[in-house]
Amino acid sequence: MADLADACGGTPEEWVAEVVRERLRLERARVGAEAGRLAGRHAALLKRLGE
What we know:
Mean pLDDT: 88
Strand content: under 5%
Radius of gyration: 19 Å
Largest sheet: none
Structural class: mainly alpha
Distance between the termini: 54 Å
Shape: rod-shaped
Number of strands: 0
Helix content: over 70%
Number of helices: 3
């Protein structure tokens, strides 16, 4: 991994941190999309619970 980090112009730690940040961004987007889908499917229930 150090060779890859060197080729990318950073330390292994910086490279790993960026990979983790990107994975978290993707996961946040996936979870947000799923939450939106579930909210849409259960909008009537959510409305009743909010009353």
